[in-house]
Amino acid sequence: MSFATIDSATKQSAGTAITAEEIAEGLHEGHTASPDVARYALTLGDDALILAQRLGWWISRAPEMEEDIALGNIALDLLGHARFLLTYAGSADGRTEDDLAYFRTEEEFRSCRLVEQPNGDFAHTIARQLLFSQYAYLLYRELAGSADSVLGAIADKALKEVAYHRDHATQWTLRLGDGTEESHRRMQEAIEHVWPYLEELFTDEDLHDRLEGIAVRPSSLRAEFDAHVADVLAAATLEVPQVPQAMAYGGVRSGAASEHRGFILAEMQSLAVRHPGATW
Amino acid sequence: MAPLNAQAHPSDAADPDIATRPVDPAAGAVWDLLSAVHDPEIPVLTIADIGILRRVEVAADGHPVVTITPTYSGCPAMDTISQDIHTHLAAHGHPDAEVRTVLLPAWTTDWMTEDGRTKLEAYGIAPPTGRSAVHGSGSGPISLTLSVRCPNCGSTDTREMSHFGSTSCKALWVCQACAEPFDHFKVH
After folding, report:
1. Do the bridges between strand B181-185 and strand B125-126 make them parallel or antiparallel, or are there none, so unpaired?
2. Residue A235: CA atoms inside 13 Å, Cβ hemisphere, count?
3. Nearest to residue B49, comparing CAs of B79, B15, B80, B6?
4. Least CA distance to B68: which residue of chain A?
5. Whether residue B41 sits in one domain with residue B132
6. Which of A27, A53, A273, B55 has the most neighbouring CB atoms within 10 Å?
7. What is the pLDDT of residue B5?
8. Which residue of B has its CA nearest to A158?
């Protein structure tokens, strides 16, 4: 394990977390992310990290015990993706996954607004899962073929997991949408609530131009996304929302956060910030 | 301690991704030592049974290099497994063992040994049924799973209660014949 050799403010023990070098082992010894690749990995990693934090809240609060377990499992998978991606992003400038997760400010995160949305009721969480898991499934399926072997390996691993997440969200959407009058009403309302945050996921940036062949061009995923989600909504007797997109601030992934980000970070980071270097 | 070979699923004999006991005698000896390292969550299975153990090599200076792969990205048992390998090898003359983790090729239940499948079922966990679909589920809105045999009474009249179970690699099932709930090591 090579963690002990990394100069880190937060990891003082010779931890056994997977390092970027290990992720790349057998592919490119000593491979580190370029600044652009790191920026890209950071956006994907932040999405996974924030959604993991959001979903973890449901443990002990879900409608049934199986859902405590399901949402906890999904959160754990996402946390795994976040750890790989943040570790790789940090390899560009010698920071660890913990440095990036716990010691960045609200403005430095690059998570999308969709994953920052509050859990709401169970239908809101399922609606957010439906959209994010379908996006993540298409994204990782393409990213598995990335010219960057580390991103490709992470995506290949994540793909099989997000396929489960997508299936879970789809089954609940069908059940709630095509369930009782009340569950239908709340599921429809939930889909409309998260819908305005979609556009951000599919907007190309200069970064994607510079990473041609390495990053997935977000706009290229949109048609299949729309078709799949429309199918699920139709099967669930739900309407595709006709609501405007929340494209405030002009730019995407610029660090301009939803108003919710600061609160999630305050909770997620409090222990590490108060006790830097703590291990257990 | 019986030497352990990573026995392939019969139909997988030609799968190049299946890990096998190294030919090199020194590395082979380390591989055999690792048959005493079990999965902390499913203690009847060794790390070779599950397919977590990918490779054992001996570096030029003589220290063993053990390569493992996580079942799921967030699997919290990986740290424990890594420490268990260190501890076990240190107790058997290899204080300087190195443990590496790789992601590619992504782990699949297709790598689980026949021996592992038999032990799982005897332990009360239904082993993976069928083969993993390459690259996720199919194109339909809901993925389908082959029928799973109840590890308690042998009936195939079973149903899935939840995709997700007590660990990432398991799902919750229930038998309609004997009414017992059970874990299923899901195809992945």
Report:
1. parallel
2. 15
3. B6
4. A22
5. no
6. A53
7. 41
8. B73
Q: Report d(CA A257, CA A259) in Å as an integer.
A: 6
Q: Is residue B2 part of a domain?
A: no
Assess whether B96 and B135 both reside in one domain: no
Helix (H) or strand (E) holding B84: helix B77-91
The per-residue pLDDT for B61 is: 94
The C-alpha atoms of residue A147 and residue A247 are separated, in whole angstroms, by: 31
The answer to whether B141 contacts chain A (CB < 8 Å) is yes
For the record, the structure tokens of A125 come out as: 């969480």
**B81 and B19 share a domain?**
yes
- CB of A31 within 8 Å of any CB in chain B? no
Contact (CB, 8 A) for B85 and B68: yes
Same domain, B87 and B165: no
Biggest alpha carbon distance in chain A? 59
In a structure prediction context, what are the per-residue pLDDT tens digits for chain B, which is 188 residues long?
Answer: 333 344 434 444 557 888 999 999 999 999 999 999 999 999 999 999 999 999 999 999 999 999 999 999 998 889 899 999 999 999 999 999 999 999 989 999 999 999 999 999 999 999 998 777 654 444 444 555 678 999 999 999 999 998 899 888 999 999 999 999 999 999 88
Chain B residues close to A101, C-beta within 8 Å: none
Chain B (6-65) residues lying within 8 Å, Cβ to Cβ, of chain A: none
Report the C-alpha dihedral over residues A212, A218, A223, A227, rounded to 10 degrees: 130
Range of B15's domain? 10-110
CATH of the domain at B42: 3.30.300.130
CB contact under 8 A, B141 and A235: yes
